Amino acid sequence: MGDILLSHRKDTVILMSINSAISKENLTIIEKLSTQEIRDIAKTISVLLSKTFPEHDLKESDLFIAICRLDMYRAKFNDNAKAKYFYKNSSIYFDNDIDIKKIDIISLHECLHYLQEFRDEKDNVVRMGLYNLKNHKGMAINEAAVQYMASVACKKADEPVKYYNMEFSTISPDFYPLQTALLEEMLFFTGSYSLIRSTLFSDDVFKKTFISKTSKKIYSEIENNFEAILEYENTLSKQTEKLANTVNDLKNISKVKKINSIISDLKEVILAKAIETQDLIYKNCFKYEFDNIRNLKDCKKIKYRLFNFRNLLIKTDNYDSFSEFYTSMMLDISNKAYEIKQHGEITPVVENYDLTLIEGKSSPVALFKILIHKIKLIFEEKIRQKDF
Questions:
Q1: Is 104 helix (H, G, I), strand (E, B) or coil?
Q2: How many CA atoms lie less than 13 Å away from 336 in the CB half-sphere?
Q3: pLDDT tens digits, residue range 143-158?
Q4: How far is Cα 194 from Cα 207, in angstroms, rounded to an integer?
Q5: Please, how many CA atoms are within 13 Å of residue 77, restricted to the half-sphere of its CB?
C-alpha cells in the first residue's frame, strides 16, 4: 500500500510539473482530439512520409502506430504559433483555427519532432534529429531540417523572398526562411539523403558527411551561426511586438526611437551572420571539390557547379564575395586543367579514411532496427497506458 501511495505521489508531482511547463508555452488547452481524429491525422502523415521518403525504409504501418500514440489537443495560442509538440508528455497542441482534416506544413513539422525524438534507457529525450539535448547543440539547424522535410513532403517549391535587406530563394518562405535557405546551400554539397536520415533517426550521418567535405571546426561554426541567427530573430520578434504596443503612445517618442534603433541593429546582425555562414559553406566545400579534381571531366563539373550555386545565393547590397571567389576559382581551375593536359590525370593519395564519415545508404535492416527501437520506447507502458 505504501508503494502504491508513493507511486501515486510521484505521478502527481510529474503531472504538476508538466502542467506547469505547459502553462509557460503560451497556450491554453481547449479540448482533446478524439481517437478517430488522431487516427485520421496519423493515417495522413504516415502515408505522406512513407511515399515521400521511400529510400529510408519508412513503413506506413509503423509510422501510423507511432503517431497514434500521441495525445493531441486543440488549444488557444497566445503567440503566433499554430502548433507545438511538447516532448515532456508526448503531446501535440494545434491552434483551434487549424482545420484538423487538412494537415499542413506546421502540423507535419510538429509531428516530425515527435517521430525524431530518441530516448535513453531512463526514458529521457537525449536527441531530436540534429539536436543533441545533452550538450544543447544543434537546435536551430534541426528546426531548419524538420521544416525542410515538411516542405518537401508537402511538395513545396523554392520561392524568391525579400528578408531584412536580403534576397534569396527558399523552400519555406513563411517559417525559418533564412535557415532553410542556408541549409539548402549545405545540401548542394552533401545531397539530401544524409540530412533526412539524421533528421529522422537522430544520428550523425549528415554532420559527418558535411565534416568530410570541410572540417569539424567549420561545421561547429555553421551550427553555432544557425543558433545565433535564431536567437537574434526571436529577440527581433519581441522588439517588434514591443514597438507595436508603444508606437501610438506620443509620450514615449524616445522609447519608440530606441526600439527602432535596436530593431535596425538586429537586422544588420542577422544579415551579417547569414552572409558569414554562406561564405563558410561555399568557400570550404568548393575548396574540397577543387582539391579533389583528378581529370578534365572534374574541371568541367566543378565549373558547372560553381555556376549553378549562384541560384542559391543570399544576396544583399554590395555583396561581391561570391563573384570574387568565382573569378578566382575559375582561374585556378583553368590552371589545373592546363597541368592535367600537360602531365596527365592526377593520381589521388590513398588515405585511411573513416568510412563512417562518408554519406551512404544504410541497409534497410539497420534502419528498420532503429525505427523498431523508437516504437518500442514509444510503447512503453510507463509513459502511458492506452488501448487502440
A1: coil
A2: 22
A3: 999 999 999 999 999 9
A4: 8
A5: 17
